[in-house]
Structure formats: C-alpha cells, structure tokens
Amino acid sequence: MIIDNKILKIAIPSIVTNITVPLLGLIDVAIVGHLGSAAYIGAIAVGGLVFNIIYWVFAFLRMGTTGMASQAYGKRDLDESVRLLLRSVGTGFVISIILVILQYPILNTAFLFVKATPEVRALASTYFHILIWGAPAVLGLYGFTGWYIGMQNSRFPMLIALVQNVVNILCSLSLVYLFHLKMEGVAFGTLTAQYAGLIMAVFLWTRFYKRLRKRIFVQGVWRRKAMLGFFAVNRDIFLRTICLVAVMMYFTSAGASQGNTVLAVNTLLMQFFILFSYFTDGFAYAGEALVGKYVGAGNRTSLNKTIKELFAWGFGIAALFTCLYCFGENFLIRFLTNEPEVIGTAHGYSLWICAVPLMSISAFVWDGVYIGATATRQMLLSMFLAAAIFFITYLSLRTAFGNHALWLAFLLYLFSRGLFQTVLSKSVLDKKCKRESIKCAKENTSIPL
Fold this sequence. Notes:
Strand content: under 5%
Radius of gyration: 22 Å
Number of helices: 18
Helix content: over 70%
Largest sheet: none
Number of strands: 0
Distance between the termini: 15 Å
C-alpha cells in the first residue's frame, strides 16, 4: 500500500501534465482555425511539426536528468542534485542558442521534406522565426521538469503546464482579436506562455527549494568526469529517440504511400495509441523517480516491490483500455471523424487497436525503470533491435498484406521492446544496485528508504 501511494503520488499529476501539454498546440490550431483561411491551419501544422521533431530529439534533457537526479536523491547527495539541475539547464541553454543561430538553415531543410504552398510557407516561416526564440525556455524547462520528477515531485510540472495553458489562451486571444496580429499574435502568445512556464519553474524552485541555494557551486558543475557521465547517459537516450522518430515517421510515410484514405485511417487510429500513452507515461514517470531513488540508495528490496507494483498498475490500465477499445471503438472512431469511407476502412483494423494496450505496456513500464536506473545503453539496444524488427516485418510482408503488415510491424516493435528489456532487466538491475550499494558503503550514506 505504501508503494502504491508513492506510485500514484507521482503518476496522477504526471498524467494530468501529459494531457494538458498538447493543449498548447491545440489552442493555436483552434484560434487560427477561425481566421478565415485554411492556410493558417496549414502553417501551424508545418511549424508545429518542425518544433515537435526538434524538441522530441532533445527530450533526453528531461529523461536523463530524471534518472540521475532520482539516484542522487536516493543517495541523499543534495550537492550533486543541485549540480545536475545546473548542468541540465545549462546544457539546454547552450543547445537552444545553437538552434536560434541555425534557425534559417533548419527551416529551409524542413521545407525540403515538407511540401507547402507559398502562402503556407510564408506563414509557417513567420510562426517558426518567432517561436524559435522560445527554445531556451522549452529546453530549460526540460531540465527543471526532469529534476522535479527525480526529486519525487510531479506536482510542480503539472502546475507549470497549467500556468502555460492559461497564459497561452489569454495572450493569444488578446493579441489576435484585440490587436489583430493574426499569425504573429498566435506565435507571440505561445512564446509568452513558454517563458511563463520557465519563470514559474524558477519561482517554485526558489520558493520551495531555497535551502538548496547554499549548495550551488558552479566549479563542480562542469567537471570533465561528471560531464562525460552526463553526456554518456543522454547520448544513449538521444540515439534511442532517433530510432523512435525513425519508426514513427516511416509509419506515417508508409501509410501515406497507400493513399489518402489509409493515411487518414492510420492518423486517426494512432490517436488511440497516443491516448493510452498519456496514461501509461504517468506510471513510467513514477518508475523513473522511484527506481532511481532505490537504485541510488542500493535498496533492492524496495526496488523489486516498486517494479512489481508498477507492472500491476500498468497491466490494470492496459486491461481497462483494451475493454474500452474493444467495446467503444465504434463510438470513438465516429467521435473523431464523420467521413463514411474512413469509418468503414478503420473498422477493418479493430483487432490491431484492441491489441495496442497489452502489446505495448511492458515497453512503457520498462522505459521508466531503465531511465530511473540510468541503464540507457541497454534501453538503446532494446530499441534498436525492436526498430529492426519493425522494418524487417513490414518490408517482408507489405506486398501481401499492405497496411495490415504495417500495423503488425508496429505492434511487434512495441512488444519486442518490452520483451528485450525484460530479458536484460535482472542483470541490469543487479549490477546497478550492487554498484550503488558499494558506493553507499564507502561513503557511509546508505539510508533505508
């Protein structure tokens, strides 16, 4: 029961955060959708796609920070915890400066892959060149969010996300309808919200973690050995993300090559997977925080109990969503679209959608465990092998089974990620806990948690 309470204390706010984060983009779409031209919606779609790819690639700043911060928390090493925050936020700022400097070649490269009309291209360029200045806020927030979760506090990221959405709504509506700035107004509204989130993150830290101010020592932040360890963890997560992006982009591309109807169906059905991921990611975040804490403390007993309960919650959520998708699939599809051809074609893929929760749940839970344990090399290996299975399966079966081969390949990719991580888990966790126990014994910092 105690472990369950700890899991839910982190998971529930994380689920709320996951649900509210996409609202930033939805708000922009909703506003420009009433400006009188479809080109505005297209511009938001193109600009949003570019930013999604950029920030997705650099999401390692959030994940890597969570794993390392949670282990520092478990060891009660507050000095290293503060250094990790400064290291992560500082690295994010350096990357963001590079992105701002390279904004023109980045956008021009994006337009080589995303075809757009001259009007959409012009509006998307305006949107991009304004919002790129929000990179320091976005990447800085990755560091703060990862650190807060690592410190077993998922409430603050939730509060930050809520503040961002309120500020975005108020600023965007005011700039568009009161000052008639149209696309510029939407972009500046979102930019303001991004910096409001960063300011909120800093305020919460200075207000509730002020006792840690005396532990800020810049000299130790950029030590060569510490930076090598920081980048080793984040390098593996970065390469894992590249594999993930490759699978998702190829999935979309392969669907598009089969016609507009199949593309529409795949886009619609992918929302079922995304909806499920919002909930399971909350438990993955709980895994990152708690597993890191117990690995840092060398507490294998609590670690085993936590992993067991994480899987219990995970499979419970998966069973719930399986029932929802099996019995409510028709309602959900009709809620998302009223196109008869799309609805009719989508029903032919019901089996795949019902299988998504149970086939993917192990991958989600293990991701949280591996990030918390900073076993990023093994996580990368599992992702690489799973991505290879995806491509081999689809390329072997596409001629005979078409889009069904694509969904089979996607589900095998999700299942095999969890399978490989299950196989590697015992040796990985034994090694991590043994190493940290030795450290704790040498430093006399072993504290039961």
